[in-house]
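Obj.: predict assembly geometry.
Materials: sequence records (below).
Method: joint structure prediction, all chains together.
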Amino acid sequence: MTTLPTSPLTSPREDHSLSLRGSRGLVWSVLRLHRAALWIWLLLLAAVSATMLWAYGPGFDAAAADLRQQCRDSVVACHFPSGPWYGKYDTAVALSTLVVAYLPFLVAVWAGAALIGRELETGTAHLAWTQSVSPARWLAAKLAVPALLITAGTAVLIPLHRLMWNGGEELLWADWYDQDAFHANGTVALAYALCGLAVGALAGLLLGRALPALGVAFAAMLAITYLGNDYRPSMWRTVTVTGAKALNLPDDSLRLDQGVITTEGTRIGNNLACTDALDGAADLRRCMARGGLSDIWATYHPRSHFWPLQLAETGIVLAVAALAVIAAFVLLNRRVATASAAASVPPDRRTAAVGAAV
Amino acid sequence: MSAFAVKGTAEEARALPRGPVRGLPWTVLRLHRAALVVWVTFLLAAVGTLVWEVEVIADSVRERIASCGENGGLCRLTTLVDYSGTISWASTLVYYSFFAVAAFAGGALIGRELENGTAQLAWTQSVSPTRWLAAKLAVPAVLLVLGGTVFVLVFRWAWAANRDLMGDDWTFNDVFAARGPALVAYGLCGLAVGALAGVVLRRSLPALGISCVVMYLLNHNLEKHRVDLWPTVASGGSTVGGLPDDVWQVGDGSFHTQSHYWPMHLVETGIVLGVAGLATAAAFGLLRRRTA
Amino acid sequence: MSRDEEGIALAAVGLGKRYRRRRGPVLRNCSFRLPAGRICALVGPNGAGKSTLLSLAAGLIRPTEGTLTVLGTTPAEARTRFAYVAQSKPLPPQLTVAATLRLGAELNRARWDRAAAERIAYGPLAPGGDRDGALDPTSKIRSLSGGQRTRVALALAFGKRPELMLLDEPMADLDPLARRELLGALLGEAAEHGTTIVISSHVIAELEGACDHLLLMGGGRIRLGGDPEQLLAAHTLLTGPARDLTGHTVVESRDAGRQLTALIRPGGPLPDDWQTAAPSLEELLLAHLRNPDAPDLFTEETVETDENEENARA
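Observations (raw structure tokens):
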């Protein structure tokens, strides 16, 4: 993956002489224009991958050994994990989760500001459009090249993050449904990153200016991420259990709601009646009889719903990304068409411009 | 007569623009009007939300809790989370708005102006680079101090108003910062760091990125080491009788009582302001060295 | 202060500027004087260092060596007294034309001339005002054409009522009529207020006739400096049989068999069998640009002598 941008593409001249496919030149120009971003991306990948590998192997081993030693020395330390090794391990895990989970924001602001907004602002986009590249192909290249690099990069990051996460479960005290971990442990990381690219590009095209596009792209991603977190539990059907099972959900379940059914058959949600009846089925029956209830229930997502939830959310977020891409192309086509019709100068100025050109 | 020819000037035409804000400050406000509008709106929304929650919503929250019934523990909890969550959203957003300030300062305020030459335009309009930078920093700084102070005062009142409805305590990251001058200090620090990045890099987007990264590193490390900013109380034998419930427990069993809030808070404020001062001095030094 | 310094708009002594340590200098050991009240053409090929010299004079960058005196003092001290228009005509894109002029007023509260600025920005472009090129005060800078932005930038310069105008390629975006009008306005300004004007350009033709002073830059230094007429008078264009030219300074010579064509600075009487002619300004400049080894030439008032140097230091 690291060799992709450098070796075959650094010599555009040969390419031109062949001129078989202009797309190679276009790909080269996208990579060359955003070389700094490419380097930062590669450095980030290398740094985060190294951090996660360290946390998976030596970091975890050192922290676990240190904690076992502390636990032998004092009982308090068993419940309050601390110490320099644990601190380093915790920081490494937290930072890499943060980067993988919030990568889409970085992609979105970059795409809005540097990839599209600045190019339109400084007019270098128009330069490209007058170099035998149609605006639509320009935008396609601007989206495809980063999309490939993002996909390739997250294809490395996500498995590594899973490796680190699964290996460190006994130290991390975190659940599979925690927002950041959920984002970093599956395909939604890729989906949100691509969505960031699309939303950023759309913001850049809409505003045509780097800094406002950056702000709007960030805000849009904030909204999309917030909605995703909010509606995540409803993206796959939940499991509902009744009776004693409602009191003892399987380990690692995401408990969503808890309620009762009265003897009249009314279902009441958000109610904790009889949840303290932990002594057994008989205790529960007594409590229900006392409260005029026929049953209690709980809805939840078991841990096995991790992948269905991931894939459902991935699909929805990719659909949002696709909509943004379509909107971007439609907007670009419409604008270019009007620009060629009116030469992008207001009618009253056109005479002056023509006069000036004489 | 040619358009460019400049003939004798009538005295009335020399009249200077009038208004409460003049000169450089007017320029700064006019150039960054969009940012000013966004920031004022944001702050008003945050303050308005706090006042609304405390003055209007709090009573209905109590009613809803009362109607939860005797087995409504979960119902009570979700109602509290609604109320407490909104207040904590306000403080979180305003606290971390120093990232936006740093991005603005590195990007639009300084970086872009140096990038597209409008800073140089000002420097050849009777304004020295030093005075230009001073105004660019002073005007936002005054607004940050004013707005931040208002928010801190309102937040202190809102946070203390209905403690029974709130699930947080004074040790939470955002609560810790938003109840005192540290919130303002972070804003000023974001401004200074952004300005320095803008002066160093002279390009808006790299300056924006770098200043956000620097602010993250500073803030992250301070949040992580907050407990070390003031000596803790050793637990000793008093743990047997149980600790007061508003202490900040440190891993090894020692703790901070709430009376440590102000010393810890002021130490952090001092560190952040120190960084802001250094960044400002560096920005001025660099600009002076570069220009005549 | 001596009369010399009061009457000098720009004086450079051993001026040098390099942008990066590893790169070569853009300006090197540059010394000259520009008397006040002149309209000076600063000409030279692309990359000769014209913009760097003007930026140094405007106090936007610092020289790496030497000194530059502007209006008898440092560029920073003289800031309120000169105007500068950069080559790229930077203006805040989000402002309207009216707000940009207000910006000039706010930044120059001590000496703003609103009428002068508005006449440049909104005045009719042609006699009678029948051309519709005048700017609308409410239009955004962002939406202006290059030439219109140049007008706004020039309006800021005129509104300042400067003693010295430093204009970096002001003509580039203007149509031919506007160019002539700009020259007219500059001449009027100079005549009425004694303003010194420095205009950089790589096209000498557009300034010929308007300027009464010339600075030719090449290779990071001033190659020729002085009144164009005096400079022309110092040169002769020769055609005649090939012969030894010792005793004269040869700027450029071309052999075509036995015939010789040369541009020289005569060092004495010329033989009769040579045809002589006065070169045109363009011929003079091109000959110097083609031959970087030709010695530099300054008229007396332009040369920065050691005596002047001491004055400048004092």
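Conclusions so far: The two ends of chain B are 39 Å apart (CA to CA).
To do: check interface contacts against the pulldown list.
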